[in-house]
Amino acid sequence: SWDRVTYDMTLISIPRDTITDIEVFSADGESLGMTKDHISLSFAYGDGSYESCELAEDAVSNLLYGVPIQGCCAINMDGIPVLVEAVDGVTVTVPNDSLETADPPYQEGEEVTLTADNVETFVRYRDTEESQSALARLERQNAFLNAYGQRVQEVFAADPGVVTQIYESLDPYMVTNIGNDQFLKIMEGAAGGDAAIERWTLPGEGREGTSFDEYYADDQALY
């Protein structure tokens, strides 16, 4: 959520397994109406581009009691290394032990430097055999976003042009309906260090479903 006057931001993390109302479609693209399912599937029912973004916007809006979503941006996994390369690496504190088995250096509390070679593992890996592993991964992703934001502020102080460079580097890997000027204002507002940035995760609890993990929002706390 971006305040266009003060540039203050609130970053809201929504677990991929959140159960909410999404629109579903048949194999030939015919709408089958609304159903309750994992919010991450809303994007998958689209075309992988603007249509998917619109469906994801609708799902998030439904989840947040009809709050209008006025812009979207989807970045594919190939763009993640590009983000890190643009700021010459990011140092992050590992928030939990969810990566330790797969890669022992990633122990909880350790400081590690993420590069184009290892960042995808940090933000993407999870043990699908372990219940609620997506929540532990989300915690790592939030740690990455926090560290990346701090790193961008450091680089921006020395070279304000880095924001434009990041945007241009991401363009081949990105789908967005946000205009270039507005997009750059959002990035510059965050990079400048003057805006207040608040972060929170959708309140709720994870449960084991019949086939897959599920996450249910705490309606009272969310409202």
Overview of the molecule:
- This protein is an alpha+beta fold.
- The protein contains eight helices and ten strands.
- It has helices at residues 41-44, 50-63, 79-86, 119-124, 133-158, 162-170, 180-192, 219-222, and strands at 9-13, 19-25, 31-38, 73-75, 90-93, 111-114, 174-176, 197-201, 204-208, 213-217.
- The strands form five sheets. Strands 1-8 form a two-stranded parallel ribbon. It has a two-stranded antiparallel ribbon with strand order 2-3.
- 22% of the residues are buried.
Features:
223 residues; alpha+beta; two-stranded parallel ribbon; two-stranded antiparallel sheet
Gist?
The chain has eight helices and ten strands.
Query: What class would the helix/strand composition place it in?
Result: alpha+beta
Task: Tell me the number of helical segments per DSSP (H or I, 4 or more residues long).
Answer: 8
The best one-word shape is: globular
Q: Indicate the low-confidence ranges by residue numbers.
A: none
> What is the overall pLDDT average?
93
Number of strands: 10
* C-alpha end-to-end distance: 16 Å
| Side-by-side strand order of the widest sheet | 1-8
